[in-house]
Prior knowledge:
The protein contains 2 helices and 27 strands. It has helices at residues 29-40, 120-123, and strands at residues 12-14, 23-27, 48-51, 56-58, 62-65, 73-77, 80-82, 97-102, 107-110, 114-116, 133-138, 144-146, 149-151, 158-161, 164-169, 172-174, 185-188, 191-196, 199-201, 205-210, 216-232, 236-240, 245-260, 264-269, 276-288, 296-300, 302-307.
Amino acid sequence: MVCFLRLSSAANYNIMQFGAKGDGVTDDTKVFERAWQELCNDVEPSSRLTIPMPNTFLVGPITFQGPCKSPLIHIQILGTIMAPQNPSSWNGCETGAWLLFYKVNGLFIDGGGTINGRGEAWWTKSSTYVHSIALHFESCNGLRLTKIKHRNSPRNHIGLNRCSYSTLSYLDIVAPANSPNTDGIDISLSTQVRVHHSIIRTEVIFIGSLGMNGQYNTVEGVKVRKCQFSGTTNGARIKTWQSSAVKVSDISYKIFVGTSLSRTAINFDCSNNVACTGILLDQINITSTVKGEYPTVYCNNAYGTSSFSSPTASCLLN
């Protein structure tokens, strides 16, 4: 029997109270499921679930299902949450995500701890093998994710889909250069999302993919500023399917400094059917990682302006 001591109407649940081992070897998935049910059913907005340090918790694929009874759900990660090492042990990962939060509004995750996807074993698998996103939020409005370290996801580190009014800040996301498709943050079908004060040492900041099977979508009001990229293939990217009907408009990139692995450092390859409009480049300074090579800009059906930028995007149509 597990007992909980409440000093007030709000509770500070500790995952160890539920029987977690936190030794990095014992599977604590079921314990996390029980703790989540307790937290999600608590009506007090000041209650929180703490994942303590210096423990490491081995957790398999899990869905944190909402909606919850409280308007604020607080999870404090101080220690490490670690994925199974062998992909074959990821049973029940039909969602394509290791840690999935679904329909949890008012979710607040912080603490300075680590989420380790242990993706090394996945990266050698064939492209037909379904690699999983480490941390995914589906229909979670009012999300706040801050001061968390993310390491070595099998695929994307963080995914947001159908999430509005969300803030991601002070994140530290790292995967080695040879890790395939380990995007830092993927955002789709979402509005009013802010990402700031974060270090992303993976592949890209990624919006998309959009327009699958010729569907009509829009990407608008995206503002990216004060970023530093080093040796990237794709730094800030908006991706759409070929022959799609996606309208990209009101996109601004300001104060970029960095280097590019590709000679084409800036690429606006827009649909021949639907133009990209309202593009703004301001104070861009991108150099090539290849000595003596000057980076270039490519534009196709793209309209906008460029100022104080190198390389100069003279191909943008006014």
